[in-house]
Amino acid sequence: GLGHLLIMIDPARFGAQPGDAPDRLDRLAASVRSHGGRLPGGQRSLHPDPAAPLAVAEETLAELAAWARRLGVAWPAEPAERPESGGSSA
Questions:
Q1: Is 77 within 8 Å of 56 (Cβ atoms)?
Q2: From CA 60, how far away is CA 82, in angstroms rounded?
Q3: How are the residues of the chain apportioned to helix, strand and coil, as percentages rounded to the nearest 5?
Q4: Count of CB atoms situated within 10 Å of the CB of 65
Q5: What is the dihedral of CA 41, 43, 44, 45, to 10 degrees?
Q6: What are 53-77's pLDDT values in tens digits?
Q7: Closest CA to 76 of 68, 63, 57
């Protein structure tokens, strides 16, 4: 069978205050790294360049285009019609 467990925790009961999550997470991440641990995505920029091209697999683009047609949603271009640079004119 399939089961689900839902746990709700009130951070305030453990001393957490509203707005201090970023600092607490930074300290936790530093502790993990200082003990030789790695964090998924830890080397990625938190502020990516919005002008940088986004790499998306052709199969994914084709599927998105098919859904756009099916739903009657405007799609920028079919995969074969997109510029090679992967950029967007929008």
A1: no
A2: 14
A3: 40, 0, 60
A4: 19
A5: 140
A6: 888 899 999 999 999 999 999 888 6
A7: 68
Residues of the chain with pLDDT under 70: 77-90
pTM of the model: 0.35
* For the chain, percent of residues with pLDDT exceeding 70: 82
∠ at Cα 1 (6, 8), nearest 5°? 0
Give CA–CA dist 55/86, Å, rounded: 7
Q: b/e for 9-35, b at 16 or more Cβ within 10 A?
A: eeeeeeeeeeeeeeeeeeeeeeeeeee
Enclosing H/E stretch for 70:
helix 58-71
Please name which of 52, 51, 50, 80 lies closest in space to residue 65, comparing C-alpha atoms. Answer: 80
